[in-house]
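Troubleshooting entry. The earlier prediction with magnesium ion gave an output that would not parse, so I re-checked the input for stray whitespace and re-submitted. Clean input:
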Amino acid sequence: MVEYTAIKNYLSRHDIPCVNPKAALVDMDGVLYDSMKNHVEAWYRTLVPMGIKCTKEEFYLYEGRTGASTLKFLFDKHFNRQLSDEECAEIYAVKEKYFNELATIVPMPGADRMLQRLIENGIRPVLVTGSGQGSLLDRLDIDYPGVFKPEYKVTAYDVKEGKPSPEPYLMGLSKAGVDASEAIVIENAPLGVVSGTAAQVFTVAVNTGPIPAQALFDAGADMVFPSMPDFADHVDELIKALRTTR
Ligand code: MG
């Protein structure tokens, strides 16, 4: 459902008459790909043998961080140990190996239609992901041909801080050449939502995983849709409402 009050609240908070999206800053895992289960399983297989007592569920809350940031956080928390970038790269390579061994990841159902609706509304999709997973990044052009131009991609290789810092979404705005009132963020994870709202962008959360919708509202999402097909159904209405001057 398009929540008109949420748009009104965003506009009054930012003191602007409307949002005129020219770019959509689109997260990858859990938005374009149904990949989170595999990430969680790969992290779990990597870290449990290293003595980290974690649950699978907690990785949904770390989603959006870069691999290095997740590793530094967990080793500090469990062993009070500061990992070097080299150590992070070594462990991340193990995680990547497990990830690539798991079942093939499929595009998120409804994502293709969602992107087509954005494009037909004159909105340029820009990729903004914390992922450095080559196997998925390389597939984007196959699964979404021509949608994400190389100059409109922000990945783990571009950013220093990663989500929940606003840095990746600010970089997305800058690559698209638009300001915050000319964009929307499309996210699925609480930390990604924090990053998008910190960049002052109207942030749509699509709840494609096991976390409660409230966690996305609590992170600051302006609007939450219960699934990708549902969001795709409402893109036209949302864009029209955002462009309407109040
Ligand atoms: Mg995500």
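This one parsed fine. The chain has a mean pLDDT of 95.
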